[in-house]
Amino acid sequence: MSDNMNDMDQMQLFNDQGRLLNAGLPDEEKALFCDAAPQVDAPYRGIWEKFLNWARSESLWILGFGTGCGAIELRPLMTSRYDMYQYGVQPRPTPRQAGLFIIGGYASVKTMKRIVRSYEQMQGPKFVLGLGSCTVNGGMYWDSYNTINRLDHYIPVDVYIAGCMPRPEALLAGINELKKLIKDGKGENANKYAENFEWYKGNQKKIIKDWNMPDYNW
Amino acid sequence: MLTSILTKALYTLISFFVILNYSLLLLGTMARVRAKVQGRIGQPVWQPYIDIIKNNARRSGVTHGIMFYLGPVFRLAGGLGTYFFIPVIFGSKIFANFSFSGDVLLVMYFIFFGQLGMALGAGESGHPYSPIGVARGLAQMTAFELPFSLAVIAVAAQYGSFSITEIVAAQQGGWQNWVAFTNPFAMAAGMLAFLGMSMNNPFSIVIAPQEIPIGPPTEMHSSFLGMLQTNRAIFNGAKMVLFMNLFFGGAAHPNIFIALGIMIMKTFLIYLYVVFVGVSFPRFRTEQSIRFFLGVPTLLGLIAVIQQMI
């Protein structure tokens, strides 16, 4: 962000044509990024969408975001004791291919920026799982000067798992809960993000002061 | 004329359908075998189907240009090209595919064609990890190409033919006629090269999931990835059928179902060997794998060729 830009400039999202302003980017970089806001992708109807939702729920690819201590609870899922593969869950190292974003604990303002970027790079339908009390209400960091308290003010969250720290069993229970939601057709938070894009962006920009990335990271 | 073309197309479709489903189930089975080795239960056998459906059902996708579209298409063309020129079952019209007198040369070309197409597609994605994966893949490919070619040359010299059908025909009449027993050095060189070709451990550095997230397809997602996964199954099946034909006498029986059973048994064992090696050994770095392929396997290939000369 250029130095002379004030907060109000940064908060303005769209120009007259409805394109994103990308005000945080230097002029020479603006052409490199997309200026379109996310679109709502309507689901199919009836039995076909039910079938696709079944496939989505039985093949969850995790993008694990090891922001805090919760990351340590993600690892045992891969081991022979918890074996998440039997539930169709597997880790995926790139946001493009992943469908389930797990925020492993507290999210500081600095990591919030990366969380937003990674979340927006995932392809819909995408799901978010908040792991640990810090994502619910800040947990033991609720009055910290640089961690956020409620994750779902910034990106839509499908399932929260409370606890400090929740055990891998709790994580598996959360994943199974998410599977039920997807099968019921309630995993539409990617569309919710697109519909309430301005609200989410406003919240994000309120806490991320040095906004030097595109407004929407396709 | 038209009828014969249509019949051929129908036969090829049947053959394609069989190999696609067999290979997908085989991938799922082998993932379960690996899980058993690690003391896990493992994913369901049909998981590859669900993954492909899920990826194709993604509602959004990002493109980076024309080559990004064409990358997976080239890869799929490489897989299909490899499969369509290999006769799967000896003496069967339905499973003869488009085999002809020089098919082994064309198949060797198609095995590498897909990788090159993928290199172009992955390059356009602009992600720095893709070219790293591609560079590693091409370097490793150049290395295992040598023992593989030497093995094929030795087999071609042995039977004086570049036709897979003729090579299979010459191996009929019992297991003692298989190349594995008449030309064991060629088989050894070929099977060692196959380890690199199948990109399992210890040669899985190309798609190293932690250091260079997933390698060449880092940016591939949604239906692009679905296409690559479909190709992975076809390509795996094609390569196993090729190696079964070249070294293990192919699959031949007057009854098509028994012949299919023989094919399934032999290719299953060939893939099991790859998985067996994979779970037993840690991963090589790129330069280690190049050094490995240019060492013993190449030497074995040379011995096999020299053996045919004298």
From TrEMBL, chain A:
InterPro entries on file: NADH_UbQ_OxRdtase-like_20kDa (IPR006137), NADH_UQ_OxRdtase_20Kd_su (IPR006138)
Transmembrane residue ranges: none
UniProt keyword annotations, A-Z: 4Fe-4S, Iron, Iron-sulfur, Metal-binding, NAD, Quinone
Domain NADH:ubiquinone oxidoreductase-like 20kDa subunit, residue spans: 68-177
Any one GO BP annotation for this protein: aerobic respiration
Gene Ontology molecular function: any one: quinone binding
Keyword set includes Metal-binding: yes
GO CC aspect terms: respiratory chain complex I
UniProt family annotation: Belongs to the complex I 20 kDa subunit family.
Protein name according to UniProt: NADH-quinone oxidoreductase subunit B
TrEMBL record, chain B:
Superkingdom per UniProt: Bacteria
Compartment annotation: Membrane
Protein's name according to its UniProt entry: NADH-quinone oxidoreductase subunit H
InterPro entries: ComplexI_Subunit1 (IPR052561), NADH_UbQ_OxRdtase_su1/FPO (IPR001694)
Bilayer disposition of the protein: Multi-pass membrane protein
Keyword tags: Membrane, Transmembrane, Transmembrane helix
Major localisation: membrane
Gene Ontology annotations for the cellular component aspect, listed alphabetically: plasma membrane
One Pfam family this sequence matches: NADHdh
Transmembrane segments: 12-31, 66-86, 106-123, 144-169, 175-195, 233-250, 256-278, 290-309
Organism whose genome encodes this protein: Spirochaeta isovalerica
